[in-house]
Amino acid sequence: MSMPMLNKMHMNGYDVLSVNNGPWRVCTQGDRLASFASKEEALAYAAALPGYKKRSTRAKSHTAQ
């Protein structure tokens, strides 16, 4: 049995990854945005997107003072 192979990079806050030499995917932690046949296409797509920053999971509370 062979081990799965993961190639992973980061560009502009996005994950650019490929598993077992399959298609290259551009993802956030919760969403897959696009798939591409080549690493160069995926990196170009991620570079063209606006910078991604994970949002905080806690809502900031605003109290009246």
From TrEMBL:
Q: What is this protein called?
A: DUF2188 domain-containing protein
